[in-house]
Amino acid sequence: MKILQRYFFSQIVKSVVFILVAFLGLFAFFDLISELSSVGRGGYQLHHVFVYILLGFPGYIYELMPFAVLIGTIYAMALFASNSEFTIMRVSSLSTRDACWMLAKVGLVFLVFTFLVGEVLTPYTSRMASEFRNNLIGRNLSDKFRTGMWSKDTIRENGREGEIIGSRFMNIKTMRPDGTIEQIKLYEFNRELELVKTVTAQNGHYLGNHEWQLNGVVESLIKSSGKSKGKRFPDSAPVVDTEKRDSIRLVSDVTPDILSVISVDANKMSAYELAVYNRHLVENKQDATSYQIAFWKKIIYPFSVFVMMALALPFAYLHFRSGGVSLKIFTGIMIGVAFILINNLFSHVGLLNTWPPFLTAVIPSVLFLLSAVFALWWVERH
Fold first, then answer.
1. Any stretches that span the bilayer, and where are they (predicted)?
2. Which residue from 54, 85, 99, 286 lies 20 to 30 Å from 11 (Cα-Cα)?
3. Which residues have CB under 8 Å from 328's CB, separation 6+?
């Protein structure tokens, strides 16, 4: 059985790597065509395009891994069936349970690999690729927003601890790839949602430990006149005290990582980053449903390799006369495309219908797993 396990492992891994390399080459070609229009802007040249495409490979590997596992495993199983190898294995007392167990062991390797690529490599290389391209072209992370980036924060009595005494809205016109922010506007409200302070600053630098240093500051304190009751304007108008400062320290839950999340595709973030941003949104009473769905998809997605391998196993029971290898591979491609489409469809439908994020993320995998179980039952009976 150990020899058979190694044979399964070697054949499936070779097939999956071959399929993965083929798709990576295809996506790299599409990216090259797409980036050619940007060559010559700023310092962005053709050799920079190849570096940018290379940095995007981990993201593609993560997205394509279940698909490649499905096609690669189907190819290996189809070869076993066409050469009558699987028939000989079954005659030699290989049960369906044994075959599932061997595939599960191979799938565990793919699961760990997919998880590491998605959690460690993809977030780092995606951010590096974005910064690399933006630096050369001269774009900022906030250029995609017409009015800059907006973020909400809570104000506590003692910095980050103590009772909540208000809320703060932060508008950042420009965020550099190095994390420097420029043209900052802050609007602070008390618990009664009355505007009590506005702050404008030319630029800001993150000091760590949730502290920012804002430079070129104009701070306006807005105080009630105390004569608003029964009075008309201007007697009822609040008193505004304006003061200019060279710099101030700002304690905020908003960090460069949280700001960068706003301009980064959630699918290219790690589960940890999504969890941190989800907590930030919930604490500030903002809708976090889309990021919660992205978080659970990030957790469940690596396990889909098991589902894909379960879907591929029935193809080993179909003899060569039931259809050629190419037909089986084409069927596998259609199944993979259907899985990707349904997975994305459920994300949008779940968001529109406010389904629980966990169920929204797990239902597609469960449906395909049930389909695999039914297919195994059918091929064994027939």
1. 12-30, 50-78, 99-118, 299-318, 325-346, 358-379
2. 54
3. 74, 75, 77, 78, 315, 318
Query: Which segment of 7-21, 201-215, 268-282, 287-301 scores lowest on mean pLDDT?
Result: 268-282
Two tokens, residue 10: 């070697």
At 331, list the tokens. Answer: 């069927």
Determine the residue type at 276.
V
**What does the alpha-carbon distance between residue 284 and residue 278 come to, in Å, rounded to a whole number?**
10
User: Under 8 Å CB-to-CB from 156, ≥6 apart: which residues?
Assistant: 162, 163, 164, 165
CATH for 149-254, options being 3.40.50, 2.120.10, 3.30.750, 2.60.450? 2.60.450
Nearest CA among 12, 124, 11 for reference residue 62: 124
Is 249 strand, coil or helix?
Answer: strand
Do the beta carbons of residue 134 and residue 140 sit within 8 Å? Answer: yes
Residues in Cβ contact with 302 at an 8 Å cutoff, skipping those fewer than 6 apart? 65, 111, 114, 115, 118
Q: In the chain, what are the domain boundaries?
A: 2-138+289-381, 149-254
> Residue 33: which pLDDT band, with cuts at 50, 70 and 90?
very high
For residue 106 the two structure tokens come to 């191979």
- The tens digit of pLDDT for each residue in 292-322 reads 888 898 899 999 999 998 888 888 777 655 4
Distance CA 343, CA 140 (A): 32
In the numeric block, which tokens belong to residue 38? 């940007």
Q: Where are the alpha helices (DSSP H) in the chain?
A: 2-35, 46-55, 57-82, 85-91, 96-116, 122-137, 256-262, 271-283, 289-300, 304-312, 325-352, 357-381
In this prediction, residue 174 has a pLDDT band, given cuts at 50, 70 and 90, of confident
